[in-house]
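Residues pack. Consider this:
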Amino acid sequence: MCQVFAGQNPERYASTTRRLRLNGQSTSIRLENAFWDTLDEIAAAEGVSTPCFLSTLHAEVLELRGEPENFTSLLRTTCLIYLGQVTAPVAVAAE
């Protein structure tokens, strides 16, 4: 079983830092490439650029809960939620 995980392409878990603006503030975010790929996919599905999607998400979190304690963790869990929603209809269809 671990071969599925251990055998993955190391490029997926290599980290990349992207510089962007979140609601007018310049910042940098470091995430594993697999998460960047998923965030790019989410943004494309929303019809916006990744920086625009991240800025909108950050603004919505600020409005709902205040400044997030760890925005990169929020982004990772956003990816997990998205992937769960994308694969859920496939799992239901298979039943």
